[in-house]
């Protein structure tokens, strides 16, 4: 499959360009109800200049508060997701950074092959869901349908995104230093080269 450029699936725009650098977030299906986002969008509609930034800030705070089942807070589940992320590097994409939170995942990748962004997310979500559902005896949807991606624009943006990903477990009160979080690139001292 070739890269699709900019497209949407009815909710969020996605960017899928060969060799692009992307920061990604995807979450468990039960971690953030759609009606919560819709309520915030209505509240923020009066200030369109700040609406997107304020919405993303609220989403991040809600995610970090640990809503939903937080299945990824179980080490064996987080280990499955981490192994799934690493498995595609470097053949399908370059995995630069990640952290697996109790109810969501942040990752930074460079698209390097003929695999589209949608295919990569399908591999991550589908592969890990199958294993986690088998392990827990669950059935049904594990991951939310949508994911958020942001095209990294320049070096400054790259370092801000990298810092955000690495410090997310610290900010959420899960550890003292990024290196203390075992389900992250910082925690395993990942070297993508």
Automatic annotation (TrEMBL):
<dbReference type="InterPro" id="IPR002686">
    <property type="entry name" value="Transposase_17"/>
</dbReference>
<feature type="domain" description="Transposase IS200-like">
    <location>
        <begin position="64"/>
        <end position="168"/>
    </location>
</feature>
<dbReference type="InterPro" id="IPR036515">
    <property type="entry name" value="Transposase_17_sf"/>
</dbReference>
<protein>
    <recommendedName>
        <fullName>Transposase IS200-like domain-containing protein</fullName>
    </recommendedName>
</protein>
<dbReference type="Pfam" id="PF01797">
    <property type="entry name" value="Y1_Tnp"/>
</dbReference>
<dbReference type="InterPro" id="IPR052715">
    <property type="entry name" value="RAYT_transposase"/>
</dbReference>
């Amino acid at each position: 499959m070739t890269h699709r450029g900019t497209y949407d699936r009815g909710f969020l725009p996605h960017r899928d360009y060969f060799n692009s650098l992307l920061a990604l977030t995807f979450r468990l299906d039960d971690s953030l109800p759609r009606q919560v986002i819709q309520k915030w969008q209505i509240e923020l509609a009066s200030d369109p200049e700040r609406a997107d930034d304020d919405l993303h800030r609220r989403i991040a705070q809600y995610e970090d508060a640990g809503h939903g089942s937080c299945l990824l807070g179980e080490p064996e589940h987080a280990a499955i997701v981490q192994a799934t992320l690493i498995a595609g590097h470097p053949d399908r994409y370059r995995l630069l950074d990640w952290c697996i939170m109790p109810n969501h995942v942040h990752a930074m990748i460079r698209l390097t092959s003929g695999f589209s962004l949608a295919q990569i997310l399908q591999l991550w979500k589908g592969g890990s869901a199958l294993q986690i559902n088998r392990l827990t005896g669950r059935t049904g949807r594990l991951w939310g349908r949508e994911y958020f991606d942001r095209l990294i624009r320049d070096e400054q943006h790259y370092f801000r995104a990298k810092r955000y990903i690495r410090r997310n477990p610290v900010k959420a009160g899960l550890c003292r230093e990024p290196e203390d979080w075992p389900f992250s690139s910082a925690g395993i001292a990942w070297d993508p080269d």
